[in-house]
Write a structure and sequence with these properties.
This is Neurotransmitter-gated ion-channel ligand-binding domain-containing protein. One of its GO terms (cellular component) is membrane. InterPro entries: Neur_chan_lig-bd, Neur_chan_lig-bd_sf. There is one protein chain. The protein is an all-alpha fold. It has one helix at about 5-20. It has a domain at about 5-25 and about 40-65. The protein is about 20% helix and about 0% strand. The longest helix has 16 residues, at about 5-20. It starts with a helix and ends in a 54-residue tail after the last helix.
């Protein structure tokens, strides 16, 4: 796929995913799942965290194979 076309499709995907996205909501499919928010950890280290955010899903076919995006 040409780079300019891929970039255009990525831009469309960003816009669609963030259109109604609420970053303050917990990223769960079922909002009645337990909330473990109040557990605390005091750590002096670098952490790499990842989770599945059901609000940020798309069909790869709709975006010409764009499989992942990076957000700031």
């Amino acid at each position: 796929m040409p780079q300019s076309q891929a970039s255009h499709r990525e831009g469309e995907l960003y816009a669609k995913l963030l259109e109604e996205y609420e970053p303050l909501e917990r990223p769960v499919a079922n909002s009645s799942e337990p909330d473990e928010k109040n557990q605390l950890v005091d750590v002096n280290a670098w952490l790499k965290l990842s989770w599945h955010d059901y609000s940020l899903e798309w069909d790869l076919k709709d975006y010409e194979g764009v499989a992942d995006l990076r957000f700031k």
